[in-house]
């Protein structure tokens, strides 16, 4: 068996790209690709709640009772505790469902990343880990998402407030798709 240790730094070391399980990351904030209910779900959302434990859901319920009674709108972000995860916060954001590209998906995907970064800054975080938002159940094409995220982070790297941004891909092929977009620049 070949075990590849995949981790690459880009944008002057601000961004680390790796393959792994985001629930293992040791960072100030772990971003969750949540759904607007904030009540948990499949994919990375389920993994975060399972590993983090019930205190995260408790706080999500409070958010629903106060700030967002109708659910967290797509592109917005909200923070809770991180329970048993090796992080201070979980930042829940809702990426867009892919409807073919004509439904403002690109802007909404950017918003999800931007609002998560801004919230992390406000909370005094230095490090943050993102999963590949919207590219699972929500069906956003991986290469298109990679381009959006790379462009956004390139822009962010001009005046970064966070020290490190980790992009955690769940498979090597997703990692390679992202690296291909970086390589094409
Ligand atoms: P969305 O509904 O936003 O598409 P998903 O959770 O279905 O969210 O998928 C988002 C991405 O997260 C997918 O690329 C999926 O492979 C990945 N993913 C799922 N579980 C994990 C995990 N434990 N760590 C990192 N990434 C994960």
Give a written overview of the molecule:
Helices cover 36% and strands 19% of the residues. By secondary structure, the chain is α/β, with parallel strands linked by helices. The chain has one domain (19-182): Leucine Aminopeptidase, subunit E, domain 1 (3-Layer(aba) Sandwich), CATH 3.40.220.10. The longest helix has 18 residues, at 105-122. The model has no long low-confidence stretch (mean pLDDT 96). The structure holds adenosine-5'-diphosphate (ADP). Adenosine-5'-diphosphate is lined by residues 21-23, 33, 43-45, 47, 95, 131-138, 168, 170, 174.
Helices and strands in order:
Elements lengths: L6 E4 L4 E5 L9 E6 L8 H10 L1 H12 L11 E5 L7 E6 L10 H18 L4 E4 L11 H15 L7 E6 L2 H12 L2
Parallel strand pairs: 2-7, 3-5, 3-6, 6-7
Antiparallel strand pairs: 1-2, 4-5
Helix pairs in contact: 3-4, 4-5
The structure holds adenosine-5'-diphosphate.
Adenosine-5'-diphosphate binds next to helix 1.
């Amino acid at each position: 068996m070949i075990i590849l240790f995949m981790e690459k730094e880009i944008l002057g070391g601000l961004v680390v790209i790796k393959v792994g399980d985001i629930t293992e990351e040791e960072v100030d904030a772990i971003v969750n690709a949540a759904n607007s209910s904030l009540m948990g779900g499949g994919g990375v959302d389920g993994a975060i709640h399972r590993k983090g434990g019930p205190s995260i859901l408790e706080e999500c319920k409070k958010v629903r009772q106060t700030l967002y009674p109708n659910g967290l709108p797509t592109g917005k972000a909200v923070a809770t505790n991180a329970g048993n995860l090796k992080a201070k916060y979980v930042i829940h954001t809702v990426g867009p469902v892919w409807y073919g590209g004509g439904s403002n998906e690109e802007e909404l995907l950017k918003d999800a990343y931007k609002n998560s970064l801004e919230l992390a800054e406000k909370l005094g975080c230095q490090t943050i880990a993102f999963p590949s938002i919207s590219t699972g159940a929500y069906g956003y094409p991986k290469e298109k998402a990679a381009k959006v995220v790379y462009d956004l982070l390139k822009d962010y790297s001009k005046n970064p407030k966070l020290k490190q941004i980790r992009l955690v891909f769940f498979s090597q092929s997703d990692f390679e798709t992202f690296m291909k977009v970086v390589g094409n620049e």
